């Protein structure tokens, strides 16, 4: 097994390893999968070095912002897949679901009291960085966080990229060695020490493992959990099994047409992978390997020039190049921002030109003004916007092209750009399965000018920020079936 690259690993405290500990803990918080996972691989590495068994601890809190039935169900389905996969392995899988706010408090510290050290995931967004820092202070042993987010380690770039073009050029120069050091598809297979349930059974009385929840997901009673029940589960099922099936369906049915059809809602030609990527149910490494295999690709097809061009560098089909540009350039651009800037979600983080133009136009008269409740309930004059919002509420997703339009219209219909930002963040993160992710902030802030340039003519409300209208979208896109389906 290859070693996890050093620039994917960050110590979270300066505590020592306890060689007398009984086991190594992998605290799975973001890369929620048993395969293609550098964090799990690092934990296995430590378990082998220290000649100890491995405990994989996956928990689900009840008190994070926007916690609801939709996200809980998706994560629990992922936990079920993980349990099934890990059940017969040498690792011990300990799933825990908080039934009351703060019920899980102290569990990690107790688990770590008998541990040699703890490995966890380095997800640079939402409440996770704060949670990890707090945990690392309380845990008595070394805590390491590992970055299994992207093809490029987040530490590889020491600057914040402000344009996709510059980041793409950087990727083209730096990504090649990383293509040859992917994580192991099955890291737990390298474990030699068998973990036993008895190692953690003293914790079960206070913090019962969630096996019964995972055993019967259909009837698992989410209504007794202290989370928002007004956002119901979506149709899409969570977990690495469904993630892999979704990827393979996309490769067989849509990849070849991705570039031509992806903007048309009726053609449904995108991958649908973003929720699985967000919850870590699938790895970008696995996706890349399967795309490359599907394309019969080998590295000798890479173009020698690294000019930052969107198409032609990989030497793959037009569809695959367009897909990889979204999956790698655009996705990892957001991770770069969140990793490097703590204010990634603040209005002040917009480029100067965007802040200046939006401020200058903030008192412009709005043709329509809607409250948060009207927007949330899709009660605007614009049928296309309402349909997109209905899709978000019902299914936890919005087609990408319409998502841009959705955000631009929120800018047009709220009292100020700062209010527009708050509304976009709230609605996106409350309903979208893939919300609360670096991509969420890429998309939302893009609507306000991030990663973009000034556009003319200068318009009311938008100023020099790029304008989009429902009228031109309706002229350009095939969306009659979409409109019919999400009319109400
Ligand atoms: C206002 C707004 C909010 C958004 N919020 C989110 C969000 O909360 N979570 C999220 O994952 N994406 C978000 N996006 C980006 C984009 O809409 C989704 O990533 C995409 O629609 C997901 O569908 P898919 O998996 O079928 O994408 P595909 O087209 O199949 O793309 C494959 C993958 O590439 C990445 N990707 C695709 N488009 C983008 C993009 N424009 N920016 C960054 N990464 C991209 C995603 O990880 C996606 O799963 C937002 C965009 C806008 C304009």
TrEMBL record:
Belongs to the DNA photolyase class-2 family. Its EC number is 4.1.99.3. This is Deoxyribodipyrimidine photo-lyase. The lineage of its organism: Bacteria, Pseudomonadati, Thermodesulfobacteriota, Desulfomonilia, Desulfomonilales. InterPro entries: Crypto/Photolyase_FAD-like_sf, Crypto/Photolyase_N_sf, DNA_photolyase_N, Photolyase_Class-2, Rossmann-like_a/b/a_fold. One of its GO terms (biological process) is photoreactive repair. It catalyses: cyclobutadipyrimidine (in DNA) = 2 pyrimidine residues (in DNA). Gene3D superfamilies: 1.25.40.80, DNA Cyclobutane Dipyrimidine Photolyase, subunit A, domain 3, HUPs. Residues 22-154 form the Photolyase/cryptochrome alpha/beta domain. Keywords: DNA damage, DNA repair, DNA-binding, FAD, Flavoprotein, Lyase. GO terms for molecular function: deoxyribodipyrimidine photo-lyase activity; DNA binding. It is an enzyme of class 4 (lyase). Its cofactor is FAD; (6R)-5,10-methylene-5,6,7,8-tetrahydrofolate. The keyword RNA-binding does not apply. Signal peptide: none annotated. PROSITE patterns: PHR_CRY_ALPHA_BETA (PS51645).
């Amino acid at each position: 097994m290859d070693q996890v690259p050093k620039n994917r690993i960050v110590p979270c405290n300066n505590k020592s390893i306890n060689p007398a500990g009984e086991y190594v803990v992998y605290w799975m918080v973001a890369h929620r999968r048993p395969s293609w996972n550098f964090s799990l691989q690092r934990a296995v590495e430590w378990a082998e070095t220290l000649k100890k068994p491995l405990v994989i601890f996956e928990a689900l809190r009840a008190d994070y912002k926007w916690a609801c039935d939709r996200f809980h169900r998706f994560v629990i389905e992922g936990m079920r897949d993980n349990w099934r996969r890990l059940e017969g392995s040498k690792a011990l899988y300990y799933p825990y679901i908080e039934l009351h706010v703060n019920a899980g408090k102290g569990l990690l510290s107790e688990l770590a009291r008998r541990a040699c050290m703890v490995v966890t995931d380095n997800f640079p967004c939402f409440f996770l960085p704060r949670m990890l820092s707090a945990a690392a202070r309380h845990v008595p042993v070394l805590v390491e966080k590992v970055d299994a987010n992207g093809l490029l380690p987040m530490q590889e770039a020491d600057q914040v990229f402000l344009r996709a073009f510059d980041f793409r050029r950087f990727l083209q120069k730096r990504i090649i060695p990383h293509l040859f050091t992917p994580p192991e598809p099955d890291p737990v297979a390298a474990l030699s020490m068998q973990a036993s349930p008895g190692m953690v059974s003293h914790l079960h009385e206070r913090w019962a493992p969630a096996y019964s929840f995972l055993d019967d997901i259909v009837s698992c009673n989410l209504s007794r959990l202290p989370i928002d029940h007004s956002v119901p589960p979506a149709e899409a099922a969570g977990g690495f099994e469904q993630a892999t099936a979704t990827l393979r369906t996309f490769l067989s049915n849509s990849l070849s047409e991705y570039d031509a059809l992806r903007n048309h809602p009726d053609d449904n030609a995108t991958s649908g992978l973003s929720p699985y990527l967000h919850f870590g149910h699938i790895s970008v490494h696995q996706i890349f390997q399967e795309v490359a295999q599907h394309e019969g690709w080998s590295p000798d097809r890479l173009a020698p020039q690294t000019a930052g061009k969107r198409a032609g560098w990989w030497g793959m089909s037009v569809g695959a190049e367009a897909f990889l540009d979204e999956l790698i350039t655009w996705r990892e651009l957001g991770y770069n921002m969140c990793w490097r800037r703590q204010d990634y979600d603040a209005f002040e983080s917009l480029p100067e030109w965007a802040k200046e133009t939006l401020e200058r136009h903030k008192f412009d008269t709005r043709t329509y003004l809607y409250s948060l409740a009207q927007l949330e309930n899709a009660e605007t004059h614009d049928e296309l916007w309402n349909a997109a919002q209905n899709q978000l509420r019902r299914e936890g997703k919005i087609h990408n092209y319409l998502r841009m339009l959705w955000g631009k219209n929120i800018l047009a219909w709220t009292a100020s750009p700062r209010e527009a930002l708050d509304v976009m963040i709230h609605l996106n993160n409350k309903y979208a399965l893939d919300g609360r992710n670096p991509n969420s902030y890429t998309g939302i802030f893009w609507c306000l000018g991030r990663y973009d340039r000034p556009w003319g003519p200068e318009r009311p409300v938008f100023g020099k920020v790029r304008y989009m209208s429902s009228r031109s979208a309706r002229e350009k896109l095939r969306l009659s079936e979409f409109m019919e389906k999400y009319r109400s």
